[in-house]
Fold these 3 entries.
Entry 1:
Amino acid sequence: MGNEVVAGRVIDTGPKWSKGGGNWIPVGAVLAISSGMLFNGYNSASGQAISAIVNCVLLIVLLVVAPLDACRMKRTVPVLVLIALASAWAVFASGFPVLGAGPGLPRPFTPDFLEIGVLSQIGGVAALYCGVMIAGRLRFRQRAIDWLIMVACLYLIFGLAIRAVGTDGLLSFWTVERDGRFQGTIGNVNVTAAVAGVIATLALSQLFLLLAQSSHHLLRRGLAIRAGLYCFGFLLALGTAFATASRFTNVLTMILLIVVGVLGGLRARHVLRPLLPILIPTGAVVLLLVARFTGLLVERLDTIWGGMGLRTMLWGHYHDVARLSPLYGYGWGSFPTINGHFPGTIQFAQAAWTVNSAHNILLQLWLNAGLPYLLLIVAAFLWGARQVGNGLAGKWTIDEIGLAAAIGLIIACSMIDILLDVPATITLALFIMGLLWGDAIVRSEVGIAAATGEPAQDERFVRR
């Protein structure tokens, strides 16, 4: 079941209900995947368990109601094998007491976190495959992206509302501000900035995709409302990112938005002139957002080198710690214990005693379970990236460019911060990766050409 090529068109050959009544599938998937963004990022041991359970339940539901074609699932097996090998090594390095018995084998610092680590690993794979399965259906991927933008914007609005009215009573569950910087319902400034940047990027790419596919019939077809909603989501996410005053994330977000905007504008140039009444006010609002919310950001840009100095100090110290146990690491969930066990110099201990992450995803993976674990995870990512590159080579649509830009933002931010140490954003990142990966697998099989800016003739690119 899935998509078939019939007379040059891609047709959904799934069950009849999946073509109409199945519209709830991407909605339910997004609500499940994004739930942690509302509850402080699920950033605790119990939160990790909840996140993994939610992801696994969602995957089971998708396997029942919208299974992906077995031939396409086979193309994901190499990545799954690499992840399984990495997980097996991490279990060996993290949990068995025998590690402390042999010569040269360090005892894991936190063997009691083994079950949570295994569950989190399974939950991450489930989130990845949920994205792959959603991307394997006509319309589902586009609707999932639309709903992700909508739901994330609702979370951002809710966080801004809490910030405005205060955190008394039940609202004390959230701490939405720190030192004048907005940190949303996720509970971390830089993570919220990255999520907002991802949403702004997706909203902009979806807007240009809509324009490219609608030709000069945009207003007549009543799609201007949808374009307006994309503009609203873009502006809200961009303003929220500015309100976090996160330096690196905002600079990188603006660069990616310019790239997506230029590429999207080239593909939708045939309809931009009629839309000037929408585009000019949108540009004006962007300028107002820059003037209103970037004051603190500009002040913090003056201290960017000091911030990088602290990061460099962290990376150097934790690199030295990782080299003390290069093959086995210290076990899943061991970082707080590592930080207490290896305090470094007095100056370092004073600066980093509250740090709960290496602030670099590669170092974090190395510390968790050693170099074999790190290399296998990186190999799995590169294998999937290679499949995406081969499947979409020369045929990228603007929404796929938006997904790739969002993934690039996530990875770049995870190299200097804790974005991929928070369960909710790990789930979000893997789901988005799954959407792009699954789409590339389908596209590479059916040989669909990318939209060229003219009205799409292929059913896969007709928005509904």
Entry 2:
Amino acid sequence: MADGRAREQLRQEREAFDRSCRHSEAWFRLRLSLGYLGLGITLAITGTAAWVLFHPEACGPLPVGASAVAVSTQTLGLGYAIVRMVLLQPQVASLTSATVASRAAPTTRRKSFTAAIAAAPTTIPAA
């Protein structure tokens, strides 16, 4: 009886682990495809704006100024996206069996940056 119960528990753990693996792979593929899409859109906008900047005689002063703003905005936006999505990404938990993960002590979540600032003392101590 115990052997059958252990086998069933192992089957359920393996099924939960496989489901978790598929879920992680799907999210990775989604993020990767969105990254490529964003890169393509960024390159298209930057290329068009760069063409306008390098050929100012073909356009008036307003399109040249707007393209300069577009290139600057794209550069800043790309830098922000890299920092936000890559460097500040929380560490991905390693895949473990469902039983081991449920027996482990619950992990404490990190405070967000704004919560950490809000919790910081706002008065300057007297020297």
Entry 3:
Amino acid sequence: MKKIISFFAALLCAAFVFAEARVTESCLKLLDDFFDLRMELSCLDTEKDVSVPVNRLEEFKTKRSSEINSLSREEKAVVNSLIGMERYNYLFGKPENKELLKKELKVFVDEYEAFTKDKKNEDFDSWVLTVKADLLSCYITVSTKDVMKYGLVIKEYYETACKISPDFFLSPMNLGQWYYWAPGISGGSKKKALSYCETAYKNSRKPYKKYYACIHYSQMLFENKMTDKAFEILSEADSVCPGSYWLKTIRENNEKGKSLYEYNSRKTE
């Protein structure tokens, strides 16, 4: 059980999901601004104090509340869940936060269940599917009794989202990470993981998309022993976000022979 929880927690630490699909321009603008903020916050050293990024996330949600409230039910669930999951990423490291995070995430899970229950995956666009997959991955790290209920369907959400919109950016990236973490008997494969992350890299256009795609593609290259190319791709992320503390941490671990995924795995043990 502990190994299963570590798998999903590490996946979430690595990256959480959003995708490009049939959403309104106003929603896309909100998401662009949110991910720009997320990239900016990655420049902070949060090893000892996470109050600054947590407060900045709350400020973003408060200042943009009227825009969020004007969205459709599905879009609102996507935006609120993504902000909540980023808050989770900062607070998850401390055991005393577990019950608080479980309560907060359950609100998002219940909202999703309310409008997706008894419907087929194909009835929803890729935003809804990918964020639901990521949300459930997040939730079962703090609600272990739900691992079997949700754990096996997460991959299906990612796969369906990728089929609906093959030009996705982060959906194939997270599906790639699923293949990385899954045991071989369940279909895990580092080669498939590399292939999906390469797709995400090729699909990246805006700066923050390139930033995250470069990071995860580089680390899959590193895992597949292609270290020279891995460092080359990681340098591309540097050009997008100079001074990133996250990149500094990744590079330090790479120099010790450890990938980002090994680092995240140790953080969740």
